[in-house]
Every structure is written in C-alpha cells, then in structure tokens.
Design goal:
The chain is an alpha/beta fold. The protein contains 20 helices and 16 strands. Strands 6-5-4-14-13-12-11-10 form an eight-stranded parallel sheet. A three-stranded antiparallel sheet has the order 1-2-3. The chain binds 2-acetamido-2-deoxy-beta-D-glucopyranose (2 copies).
Length: 512
C-alpha cells in the first residue's frame, strides 16, 4: 500500500486520538515513553505520541521518499485500530504536525560569524599536561579569569553574601536565574531600573542569565530530577520543586513546539516561555551572557524521547539565536549542548550547535548520575570541542552548567572547561559546612566549641577569617543567629575564588 504524506499525517492524528482513548482502559497501544507523560499532562502525552510517530517517519523517509513496506504495515495497523475507535469526529482537525526544519548555518547572516568587539575570549596558556587552559573572557562589564567559578545569585542576590563582599573575594561572573526574575520583580521592572547591573549597583562585574527553561522543566520532571540531583551538586537553582509540584498538580508545565506553558509558583498565573520570549526577557535583564531556550529531559528517559528532545532543543536554540541577532545589545549568547550521556546524540549536538554563530558553549542536559559518570562524559565529549578549526570551536569559552563542587571542578578543568556555576558553596554554608584547604568541616560540631583563635581556614584572608574564630562561628550556628550563615557563605565564596586562582596557577605551571 502506498500512502501519501497528507494521509499519513491524518493517520497519526487519528491514531493519536484513538490511542488516547484506548489508553483510558488499555495501556498497551501507546509507546511506553509517551505513557510516562500522563503524569504531567494529556497534551504532552498526545504530542509525544504524535512526535514519536512523526520522528520515525522523518528518519526513515525524510518526508520525500516513499515509506518502506514495513512502515506501511505499521501505519496500516495503527490505521485499522483507529478506525473502529475514532467514529467521533467532533474534535476539530489540528494543524499539520510536521516539525519545522532545522535551521542551517546558512540561515544566519554572514556578519553573525564575525568576532564581536564587545566580547572576546583569549587563551593565555594551554597546559602541556592536559586539556586545561588559562584564559580571560572580556565582557562589557569587566573580565572573567578562567578557569573560573560562577556564583549563583538566583534572585539577583547571593544567598547570605553582599555583592560588595563577593567583589572583595574577587568573584567575577555571577549567574542569575531568568525564571525567578521573570516571576518577580519581572523583566520590565529590571529594564526600567536600567538593567541588572544598575539594579544591583554591581556596575563593573559581569552577569550571566539562563533561559528559565531549566526551572520550568524541573517542575515537569520533578521527581526524576530530584532523584538525579539527590547528590546535591547537580542541582542548579531553587530546590523547591517538590513544593511546586504539590501546589500545582500535574499540569504545571505543557510543552509544545512553540514553547513551554507553566504556572507561576507565586500566584498560579500562566506564563508562556518561548525561545523568543526568553531572549526578550534576558535582553531586558541585560546580563553580559545569555542562554537560549532548551528542553531539559530527565535522566531516566527512553532514547527515542531523548532524540526528540535534543532535536527540539536544537530548533529552540536556533530560534533563540535568530531573535538575539535581531538586536545584539552587547550581549553574548552561549548555546547549550545536549544529548544526555548518549555519545551519538552529544556528538550530533556539538556538531550542530558549534556550526551556528554562538559566542560560547554551555554543557547542559543530563550530565550523568554522579561525579564518575560526569567525568566519563567529559572524557569523550570535550575533545570534540578541539576539532574543526574552521568554526573556531577551540577559541570559544566552555561553561559547565550547574556543577561546581571541588572534585568536579578539577575533573572538568583538566578536560577543558573554562567556567562552571553552582549554588553549592552558599547552599552548604546555610547548614554550617565550611570549605577549607583541608576539606570541608561542619562548624556545628561540638569539637569546635573551644577552638579559640583558630581561623576557619588557616590560609584564608576573607573578612570572616580575619575577624572571627571557629569557636564564635560554632556558637552563632548553634544559637541560630542569621549572621552565622552570612559569615560562612562569605568565607565559602572566598574559598572558591582562592581555589580557582590556585588551579589557574597550577595550569600555568603545567602541573595539571
Ligand atoms: C535594540 O535594543 C535597545 C535596548 O533595548 C533599544 O534601545 C534599541 O532601540 C534596539 N534597536 C533596534 C534596532 O531595535
Ligand atoms: C593571605 O594573605 C597573606 C599575606 O598577605 C598571603 O601571603 C596569602 O597568600 C593570602 N592567602 C590567600 C589564600 O590568598
């Protein structure tokens, strides 16, 4: 049986309807990965199923050649089963479900591939011993020494640390979360204030914002994400996903080709996050580095769903870049490389995204379920960024999203990562964990009650260490004094800064 493109699209639609109905009573007719969506929303489940069938069709026939016999059978079978079920034609036919084509490098203007005068990365030293490199990123609001730790200021404020203290600690790049800023105080208000630098009066240090997608998808994939992040270091911002999910129920997020609908955790109002709207919001916020919209799939995911997710992220990222290039406003845009721990998909993602005129590369998506898996992923993935000199991959900065515990930092740096963000140092400070050169200590422990005159860290020159000792910090934590968290967080930020400075020196000396 030969079928036309039109009739096969019709078939998918009918089948989608039929299967939705079937699965109400019998769960066998829908692919397992689509059933998984029922937790989140019926719409996602349907669109998953449609995409599932369409992707299979695109991959085998590219929409031009005829379908093979085997597929004809599949489609016919599906068709047969739907005939008996889909007598109710009340639902209006939806628009064609064909996915838009992926944009190619030629879809972007030539000038977009030229170097920017406001954003530049220079490599000062390449280690003779590893892929590690020391560099400097020049932004309109100051430089970033790399490898560098990026502190996370979710609501445009570090938890417990005054920006002035962070400046003193030589913290350069700071990460703010678009999702939180969108919900409050809103991108327009920050634009009215003159952008995030003026709003925070942090005028000569750079900011980076994300797209907001990470938090939106953390809501959708909450339980899996929590499982993934149970080790702590893997989580980027928030930590309230359990709260969100309970409050908002299963339809907190709906994903379509257009973007992601979600509800505000503050007041339940509806937001639509699209590639275009996140870029507009990030332009209003005005960070030096911005990030395109991507989809964050959960770690435990069927490969076919991951394939579709990576493709969607690529289409969203290309759309984001087009929107960004309409008015660059002295901002740089990093792509987000996806593909989970799947070698083929990661490679495809690197190949595609590095072919487009992005200013840097962020490594995102599922990064494995622990430090060991992350290390293995970076082992085979990072060399891809040294290939292909025609697109100058090597000469652009690479950012690791959401992971910056000390062990992972060292693992990432020797494999060629330039910057990484995490709320880890400020988050653990809240629980009384102090980072020191001899490993972290729990200052609440009774053994510090009489540590009179002992600095938190012998080598540290932060304001906490120069004024207070371990015994006083122990007391403040035990007494639940708010300043305790602040003093600990300030120290931890200084610790990260000193650590990165040491690492840069070790690279300069070709020790790592
Ligand atoms: C680009 O954005 C800036 C800042 O929002 C605005 O002042 C300017 O008019 C825009 N330019 C164009 C061509 O839209
Ligand atoms: C702290 O200050 C001393 C004295 O100026 C200096 O030798 C030391 O290297 C500083 N420590 C750090 C971690 O920078």
């Amino acid at each position: 049986m030969r079928i036309t493109r039109k009739s096969s699209i019709m078939t998918w639609w009918l089948c989608g309807m039929a299967c939705d109905r079937l699965t109400a009573t019998r769960k066998w007719s829908m692919p397992r990965q689509c059933l998984a969506f029922s937790r989140y929303s019926i719409t996602s489940r349907r669109s998953c199923y449609r995409n599932h069938r369409m992707t299979a069709q695109i991959q085998s026939s590219s929409f031009t050649s005829d379908a093979t016999e085997e597929e004809d059978d599949t489609i016919r079978d599906a068709d047969d089963s739907s005939k008996s079920q889909s007598t109710n034609k009340a639902r209006p036919p939806q628009k064609a479900h064909r996915l838009p084509p992926l944009q190619t490098p030629l879809d972007f203007p030539d000038w977009a591939y030229e170097p920017r005068d406001f954003f530049r990365f220079e490599i000062l030293h390449q280690s003779a011993k590893s892929q590690a490199r020391v560099g400097r990123i020049h932004t309109p609001h100051g430089t970033i020494d790399t490898p560098g730790y990026v502190a996370v200021a979710t609501n445009a404020a570090l938890k417990g640390v005054d920006f002035r203290h962070a400046d003193q600690a030589n913290q350069q790049l700071i990460f703010a979360n678009t999702y939180h800023l969108l919900l409050h105080p809103g991108a327009d208000l920050i634009a009215e204030a003159g952008g995030i630098h003026k709003f925070t009066n942090r005028l000569d240090r750079p900011f980076i914002t994300d797209s907001g997608g990470f938090q939106v998808f953390s809501l959708a994939y909450g339980s899996v994400h929590e499982e993934l992040s149970s080790k702590g270091e893997l989580k980027r911002a928030g930590g309230k996903s359990r709260h969100y999910r309970n409050d908002l129920g299963k339809d907190a997020v709906k994903v379509s080709e257009e973007g992601a609908y979600f509800r505000s955790y503050r007041d339940g109002s509806k937001f639509l996050l699209t590639p275009e709207s996140t870029v507009q919001a990030q332009k209003k916020i005005g960070a030096d580095i911005i990030i395109p919209l991507d989809e964050l799939p959960p770690y435990h995911i069927d490969r076919q769903v991951l394939v579709e997710s990576v493709d969607r992220s690529h289409r969203w990222e290309a759309r984001s870049l087009q929107e960004h290039l309409k008015n660059i406003t002295q901002q740089a845009m990093y792509c987000v490389v996806h593909g989970g721990i799947d070698r083929e998909l990661r490679t495809k993602s690197v190949e595609y995204l590095t072919s487009l005129p992005f200013d840097g590369y962020a490594i995102g998506g599922s990064l494995g379920n622990g430090k060991q898996e992350l290390k293995e992923l970076l082992d085979w993935m990072m060399p891809l960024f040294d290939e292909d000199s025609s697109t100058n991959r090597r000469g652009k900065p690479r950012h690791l999203l959401g992971i910056a515990d000390e062990e992972s930092i060292r693992n990432a740096v020797v494999r060629g990562i330039d910057t990484m963000d995490s709320c880890y140092p400020t988050r653990v400070a809240r629980h009384g964990t102090i980072l020191t050169m001899e490993g972290s200590i729990k200052i609440k422990s009774g053994k510090f009650a009489r540590s009179f005159g002992a600095k938190l860290d012998e080598r540290c020159n932060c304001t906490t260490c120069t004024h207070y000792d371990r015994a006083y910090l122990w007391h403040l934590f035990k007494a639940n004094e708010p300043i305790a968290v602040s003093l600990a967080a300030q120290h931890n930020i200084q610790y990260m800064s000193d650590l990165m400075s040491d690492i840069r020196q070790e690279i300069m000396d070709d020790k790592i």
